[in-house]
Amino acid sequence: MTQQSIFITGGGSGIGRATAILFASKGWRVGLADVNACGLAETTALLPARMASAYQMDVRDREAWVTTLDAFVATTGGRLDVLFNNAGIGSGGPLAETDFAEIDRVIAINLVGVLNGARIGHAYLKRTPGSCLLNTASASAIYGSSGLAPYSATKFGVRALTEALDGEWAADGIKVRSIVPSFIDTPLLDTGAGGSNRSIRETVTGAGLELTGVEKVAEAAWAAVHGDKVHTLVGKTAHRMAFAARWMPGSLRKRMRRTLREPQ
């Protein structure tokens, strides 16, 4: 059997790195894409020899998408079993105090970057029977998260795109799935924006929400690719938010109203 392959954006750290390690351990060839050359080198060093190819790439660059995917499938005999749209950035703080440049950057990377990957990746996935587009959403896509408005909006968009393409691409034999992790314990959470001194980590923990390890998310990615659920929830926070959004929306609404008023 020809070796299966996965192409992972945001492969230089966090979820992307953990997923690369897991899939490589199961014999898959891995393509890693990231803007961070140092992160790519670090991830590649953690994988078995000759199991990975690394590409410095910005998901906002459509020409780079084509060039990079062409280069990767040239190493796999034309196979692309999974395209993992995972690259993303965090942004925290009150929307009214957030720079427009920051809003534009979050939307361009977290949502337009995913749309680019889906639109351009479709042709490659279609050539591989049983392939899958996997997108990283977030618990912020379950209920809008106070203090994380631009980020939350992009993740709602990723969730909607996943559902739409699950319908559109069924006839092409392409599965479309998302993982919906709780807030992940990575350096991404230490960033902030909008003139706020509060990091995303502080916003999340101030709201009483738990953080989830990247290894659990990688396991969920494997399950999502091989399962039939459109969305795979990961971690206690994601499951609790999904339950509250369905059965106790008033309670969740009150919690979000308190989030930015929590003591720093």
Strand arrangement, major sheet:
3-2-1-4-5-6-9
Gyration radius, in Å: 18 Å
Fold-level CATH name? Rossmann fold
Strand proportion: 15-25%
Number of distinct helices: 9
| CATH homology-level superfamily | NAD(P)-binding Rossmann-like Domain
The computed structural class is: alpha/beta
- Compute the separation of the termini in Å: 55 Å
Overall average residue pLDDT: 87
Count the beta strands: 9
Count of the domains: 1
Give the C-level CATH assignment.
Alpha Beta
Poorly predicted segments: none
CATH level-two architecture = 3-Layer(aba) Sandwich
Pfam families: adh_short (PF00106)
Keywords: Oxidoreductase
Protein name: NADP-dependent 3-hydroxy acid dehydrogenase YdfG
InterPro entries: NAD(P)-bd_dom_sf, SDR_fam
Task: Describe the secondary structure blueprint for this structure.
Blueprint: E1 5-9, H1 14-25, E2 29-34, H2 37-45, E3 52-56, H3 62-73, E4 82-85, H4 100-126, E5 132-136, H5 149-168, E6 175-181, E7 183-184, H6 200-206, E8 211-212, H7 214-226, E9 231-234, H8 236-247, H9 249-259
Parallel strand pairs: 1-2, 1-4, 2-3, 4-5, 5-6, 6-9, 7-8
Helix pairs in contact: 1-7, 3-4, 4-5, 8-9
